[in-house]
């Protein structure tokens, strides 16, 4: 299928409990703008780690109920200039936001909901000058840290929701 998906703009993967890999090479999805992945209990998104320098066009990534996800995949850096909306929800083993997250210069909305293992933001969050909305819910350790020592990194964001 090489090249057949070059013009795909939206991909939604939902309710695939046995899916372990997105076997489509991310390198072939250069026009992809909207990626939604939900309820894929065995998927970690870590395949294709050698593709971190790709030029991708993602504008929105929503990840919901991926218990195997621990960190964001390196290939997401390929959308550093286009990604506007990132939502991570109900990922019970999600442990860390990557140190390269502040390089997502177009990021306007970041939502992290019900990721109880996540406890801190990466350094340099103040570099996300396009960020207009930060929502952190049901992440008790992260919410507490954002209210205290991480506050200077996010104080520039106009709309902040650190609800429990």
TrEMBL record:
InterPro entries: LRR_dom_sf (IPR032675), LRR_R13L1-DRL21 (IPR056789). SUPFAM superfamilies: RNI-like. Keywords: Leucine-rich repeat, Plant defense. Residues 81-139 form the R13L1/DRL21-like LRR repeat region domain. One of its GO terms (biological process) is defense response. It comes from the Eukaryota. PANTHER family: NB-ARC DOMAIN DISEASE RESISTANCE PROTEIN (PTHR36766:SF61), PLANT BROAD-SPECTRUM MILDEW RESISTANCE PROTEIN RPW8 (PTHR36766). This is R13L1/DRL21-like LRR repeat region domain-containing protein. It comes from Fagus sylvatica.
């Amino acid at each position: 299928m090489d090249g057949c998906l070059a013009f795909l703009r939206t991909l939604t993967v939902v309710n695939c409990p046995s899916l372990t890999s997105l076997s489509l090479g991310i390198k072939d999805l250069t026009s992809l703008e909207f990626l939604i992945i939900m309820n894929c209990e065995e998927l970690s998104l870590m395949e294709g780690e050698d593709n971190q320098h790709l030029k991708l066009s993602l504008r929105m990534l929503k990840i919901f109920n991926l218990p195997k996800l621990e960190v964001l995949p390196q290939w997401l850096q390929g959308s550093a200039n286009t990604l506007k909306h990132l939502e991570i929800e109900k990922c019970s083993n999600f442990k860390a936001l990557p140190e390269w997250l502040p390089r997502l210069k177009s990021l306007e909305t970041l939502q992290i909901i019900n990721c109880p293992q996540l406890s801190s933001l990466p350094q340099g969050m103040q570099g996300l000058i396009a960020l207009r909305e930060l929502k952190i819910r049901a992440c008790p350790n992260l919410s507490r840290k954002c209210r205290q020592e991480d506050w200077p990194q996010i104080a520039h964001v106009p709309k902040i929701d650190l609800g429990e």
